[in-house]
Design goal:
With about 325 residues, the chain is α/β, with parallel strands linked by helices. The chain folds into three domains: about 100 residues, no CATH class; about 120 residues, Transcription Regulator spoIIAA (2-Layer Sandwich), CATH 3.30.750; about 60 residues, no CATH class. The protein contains twelve helices and eleven strands.
Length: about 325
């Protein structure tokens, strides 16, 4: 019987020429965990698969052509959102990500140690914010158990010496009991791994924060979103048109970094000026500057990355031009 092979491709999403110098990409290169999870599931049925990540390596066209010519896969799959994240599926097949973990970088100044990695331990959110896409998960919320989550981190530590994890859940602390159990496991059986997560303020309190810190929590981000297709506000913008503003639906520029919707009464030029003014005023604040200076010892690898691309970072900070 001929063994069927499957090629998974994580698309870059925009011009590869621009990607090489895109400071927003270089500052945050995350592994395609969805594809890696599918690959792990297929392994249980002895189905051979391979992943090519064009975002981590923008010049992947030649790799794709070479694989197609040499391996002739039966199927080709491109990354997409999946609404299934079951506890029974085994840990993502990180080994199939070329160069993992060194090829992937968490957001700069968002971690204390290397090597580091990202993880998704839940899917969905029960809230109905107008700017968030609800088309896939609706109001459902599915999550991995605390024990599974601990075992996942242990696997990453044992196999890749991962020292820091960034949880990319929409609502990491929504199920308080799960977070408390996970924190106690991390305290009782230390893995020497720190972690970040995102949460809503109403799902945090002092007691939970103390427990999470003891478990290794290094940073908590209060989540923010952009009105992509599928969100209620996107539909409202499309339906009401120029009554509320102008919208340029250019998918290649829909990257959270460019102004495509201009509210009525403003201009794109004015919004860019306001953005730069905000950016400059934020980073000139004494407390912010002291915070970033403290990263010299709190996140030394981030400073190394910053210094290597200091010209690009400064260009973006003062002009909003990332390439």
């Amino acid at each position: 019987m001929i063994q069927k092979k499957i090629l998974f491709i994580h698309p870059l999403g925009y011009n590869p020429v621009n990607a090489k110098t895109d400071i927003s990409r270089k500052a945050n290169i995350m592994p395609p965990l969805g594809l890696a999870s599918i690959a792990a599931y297929l392994d249980q049925f002895q189905i051979n698969s391979h992943i090519i990540d064009c975002y981590a390596d923008p010049e992947s066209d030649e790799l794709i052509v070479k694989y197609l010519e040499n391996e002739a896969p039966a199927f080709i799959g491109f990354s997409c959102t999946t609404s299934s994240f079951l506890d029974g599926i085994r840990i993502a097949e990180y080994e199939k990500l070329s160069g993992y973990p060194s090829s992937y970088k968490l957001p700069i100044f968002n971690y204390p140690k290397v090597p580091n990695a990202s993880c998704i331990s839940s899917r969905g959110c029960p809230y109905s914010c107008s700017y968030c896409d609800r088309s896939v998960f609706r109001k459902s919320f599915r999550y991995n158990s605390a024990r599974y989550l601990y075992n996942h981190l242990k696997y990453l530590k044992d196999n890749f010496n991962i020292r820091h994890i960034n949880f990319y859940d929409d609502q990491f602390t929504f199920n308080r009991r799960r977070v408390e159990e996970f924190a106690r496991l991390m305290i009782q059986n230390p893995l020497k791994i720190t972690f970040n997560c995102a949460a809503r303020a109403e799902h945090l309190d002092f007691e939970l924060l103390k427990l999470m810190k003891a478990a290794g929590c290094w940073m908590i981000s209060l989540a923010k979103f952009t009105p992509f297709p599928g969100s209620p506000i996107y539909s409202k913008i499309k339906e009401q048109g120029e009554k509320i503003g102008t919208f340029t639906e250019d998918w290649e520029k829909m990257d959270c970094m460019q102004f495509l919707f201009i509210p009525k009464g403003l201009t794109k030029q004015k919004m860019e000026v306001l953005f730069i003014d905000f950016y400059k005023s934020h980073f000139k604040r004494t407390t912010v500057l002291i915070g970033y200076m403290s990263m010299i010892w709190r996140s030394p690898d981030s400073w190394i990355r910053f210094i290597k691309d200091i010209a690009s970072f400064l260009k973006f900070a003062f002009t909003n031009k990332r390439m």
